[in-house]
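Saturday, quiet lab. Running sequence design on the structure tokens for the scaffold JK sent over.
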């Protein structure tokens, strides 16, 4: 019983399964979220962040935390919806 609880806790701490959400890497999530605009405002305002993957990830996570109180582990779900809508629009 204790091993089962430990495995469940380990699974919960890993975050969402990116492959099931349609992503090849965590950076793909950040890339998608970094290029969108919300209410006309870009998620990343500093062009230097686009050149530095670590800074880009920090800015994306900070933006969603500050403006929407979204935990970084939830970002792949939002990016997945955005990616799906982009693909749907590309088909039409």
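Result came back. Writing it out in full:
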């Amino acid at each position: 019983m204790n091993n089962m609880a430990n495995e469940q806790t380990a699974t919960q701490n890993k975050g969402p399964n990116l492959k099931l959400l349609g992503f090849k890497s965590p950076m793909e999530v950040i890339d998608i979220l970094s290029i969108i605009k919300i209410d006309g405002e870009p998620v990343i305002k500093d062009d230097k962040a686009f050149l530095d993957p670590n800074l880009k990830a920090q800015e994306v996570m900070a933006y969603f935390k500050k403006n929407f109180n979204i935990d970084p582990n939830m970002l792949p779900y939002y990016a997945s919806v955005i990616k799906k809508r982009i693909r749907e629009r590309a088909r039409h």
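Notes for JK: The first helix runs from residue 2 to 14. Confidence is low (pLDDT under 50) at residues 1-11. Ask whether to fix the surface positions before the next round.
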